[in-house]
C-alpha cells in the first residue's frame, strides 16, 4: 500500500502538479476508507473535505418524498468527489455514500484553502485542475438533462424530457408518418 | 425511345409488398421495450447482415423501420427489439403470438464488424441503440479469437431500462469488457451513474487501431464520437448508425434524405468521418 | 439540331398522326385549354388543341392570351408536366385480407394504358429521363411507373415561345429536344403557311412517318425542304434568346453545400407559405408517402402510395418532432436537393428550368433569384 505521497503523482487529477506543490497538498491529506453504505458526507453538513477515490465507488444522491432516494452521479477510482469546499457557504448539497467498500484520500478543505491563499500560484494550479474536471461533469450533466433515452410520453420523477410541451406535434403525426392527401 | 434497364423484380408488385411473418415468441424487456421473434410464413429465412433493418408492418396501422437485433448467419427466428413510442409500435406491442405482421427487407448498410479482425473493437450503445449493435456483438463472439480486446460501453436511462441484462453478464464471461452507466438510479443499483462518454477513458483498448461502432440518440453519438477521437481513435474507424423518417426503405420515397445521402441506401451505418459535418448542421 | 430530313405536316396531317396512333392502340394525351389553363388531356382531334393561344408567365402569375394566329403549340408549359400520367398522385400498392389469424397480401394490378404523349417540350423530356433514372433504373424500381413508361410514344416539341419564367438554356435542357423521343415536332407559322416539321428520333417514329406518308391523300404530308429545316432552326434559336430567367450553375453544388446558414434561407422562408405548390408542379419531384387504410373491422387493408412534399411539417418527423420543423430549413432542403444534392445522387441537376415553381408560387418566390442572392452575397 503506497503512501499518499507515492500515490498522488500517478493520480489523473494531480498529474500536472510539480512535486513541491504535491508535497504541500499532501500535507492536508489522509487516507480514509468506507464500508459499503457508509456516508462520506450528508446534505447540509459543513463541507470541508474533498475526496480522491482510490478504489471502490461513491454514489452522489439526494432524496424526495415521492421518488425516494435518487443517485445522480457516481465516482470510481480516479474520480474526485466534493466541490462545495471551494464555494461559500461551504455546505454539502448532496449526500455521498459508499456504494461498495471504498478507499480514498481525503483532503482537508480548510487547510487547502489556507495554503492557496498563501501561495496563489499553487492556488491557480489547483483551480485549473478543478475547472477541468468540473467542465467535464457540467457537460455530462447537461447532456443527461436532455433525457436522450426518454420519449415524449415518458415521465420521470427526477428528469423531465427536454422534448416535451414545446415539441408536441399535432394530432396528425404518427410514428409511421402522417397521411398527406395531395391533390392530383 | 428511352430504354429502361433490366430490372429484377423479386415479387409481383416489387419491393413495396411485404412478406408475411408470424410472431412465434414475444419477450417484454423493459416497461416500453419488447422483442419479437418472427418466422416467415413462406419458410424462406430472411438473410441479413448486422446493422441492417426491415420495414415492419402492423396491418391496417402502418409501417416502421426497425433494426434486426438477432444473430445473422444463425438458424432461428428473426428478432426485432422494438420500443413502444407511437401508433405502429404500439400496435406491434399488442401483437399476439400467432398473429402475422408484414416485413420488407432487409435494407441498408451493415456494421461490417469483420473489418475489426486483429484489432480492438469498441461498441458504444445508448439506450435502445444496443439492439442494432447486438448482431455485431454476436458476430464478434462467434469468432472471438479473430479480434483483440472487445469492449461494450452501454449507457441508458435507469437500471430498469437496461436491455439484455442476463446476456451482458454472459458476454463478460466470454471475454468482453462490459461497462454500464445510467443517467440516474437508486441506491440498490450499485453501478455507475453518469454519461456514457465518461466510460471511454476507463475502458481498456488501444485507440490507434480500434474499430468503434456507435449507436444511440444522435446527440449521444456526436458526443461519443468526439470523446473517442479525443482518446485517439481514428475518425475513419468510428461508425455511427443514423435514423431518419422512412416510408419505403428503398430510396424511392425521399423521406430519409440526409443532404445527398439516403439513410436507407447509403446508411444507416455510416463512417463518422463522412458525416461529421452533416451532424453539425442543424435541421438537416 | 441534327439535320434529319423528316416530313412536313399540315394541320390535317397532324390529325392523321393522331388517328394513326389511336388506331395502333395508343391513347393520345396532349395540351388543351381548361378553365384558363393549358392542361394535358386525351386528344382525339386537333380542334381540341389550344389554337391561337399564348401565355404570359411571371413570378406567381399565369394567364393565357389570344395570339391572333392559328398556332396550336405557341405557349410555354402549363402547371402539369407529364408527371401525373406516369406517376399518379395516388396509387394502390397492395391490398390485404385478414381471416382469423391469417393474412393474405395481394399486389395491386397496375393500370398502364399505352400513352402517346403529344407535345413534350425539352424541359419535360429531360424531366422524364430524370424520373427514369430515379424510379426505373435503381435497385428497387417503382413497378407501376416502369409499366406505364414502357410503351410511351413520345412526340417531342421544339419550344418556340418560352415563358417569362423559363430558364432551360441555363440548365442545358432545351429548347430543342435532342434525344429520347419517337418524333420531334417544330411548329412553323410564316409566309409559307402553318405547318409542322416532323423529324423521327427512333425506328418506331420512322415507321409511323412512313405509314403517315402512305395514308396521306392530299397535301397533309409533304417532304421537308431545306427551307423548312432552316425555319425550324430559326425557331429554336429565337427561343434561346427569349428565356425569362437565368441561373448560373457553375459550382452551384459546392456553393449551396457551403451556405447552409446563409440568411437568404430565412429571407425566403419569411415569404414562403410552405404550401407545397412548387413540389406539386415540379416535373422532377418524386417524394411520396404511404397511407394504410382499413375498414372498421380491420379485415381489409390497403396501402396506398401518395405524393408528398418536403415542405410539410411531418415530412421529416422523427421521435416526437420534425427534424426540419422550421420553414427556412425546409426551403433550404428543397433548393439544395434540387440544385446540389441531386447531382451527387443522380448525376444531373434536378432542375430542368421549366419555371413552373416560379409561376405557380402564390408568394412569387423565384428560385433563380434566391440562389442568385446567395451567390452574389446579397443577404
Would you give an account of this structure?
The complex is a heterotrimer of chains A (184), B (284) and C (379). Chain A has 184 residues and is an alpha+beta fold. Chain A is built from four helices and eight strands. In chain A, a hairpin with a 3-residue loop joins strand 4 and strand 5 (68-76). Chain A is globular, with a radius of gyration of 22 Å. Chain A starts with a helix and ends in a 39-residue tail after the last helix. The relative contact order of chain A is 0.16. Chain B folds into two domains: 14-107, Translation factors (Elongation Factor Tu (Ef-tu), domain 3, Beta Barrel); 113-279, Rossmann fold. In chain B, the strands form three sheets. In chain B, strands 10-9-8-7-11-12-15 form a seven-stranded mixed sheet, sandwiched between helices. The termini of chain B are far apart. Chain C is of the alpha+beta class. Chain C folds into two domains: 7-88 and 113-241, no CATH class; 252-301 and 309-376, no CATH class. In chain C, a hairpin with a 2-residue loop joins strand 15 (317-318) and strand 16 (321-322). Chain C starts with 6 loop residues before the first strand and ends with a helix. At the B-C interface, loops of B face strand 6, strand 7, helix 3, helix 4 and strand 13 of C.
Concise overview:
Helices cover 26% and strands 25% of the residues of chain A. Chain A has 184 residues and is α+β, with helices and mostly antiparallel strands. Chain A has a single domain (4-145), classed as Jelly Rolls (Sandwich), CATH 2.60.120.
Apparent shape of chain C: globular
Number of helices of chain C: 13
CATH superfamily caption of chain A? Jelly Rolls
Number of helices of chain A: 4
Biggest pleated-sheet summary of chain A:
4 strands, antiparallel
Q: Helix proportion of residues of chain C, in percent?
A: 25-40%
User: Any low-confidence stretches of chain C, pLDDT <50, length ≥5?
Assistant: none
Structural class of chain A: alpha+beta
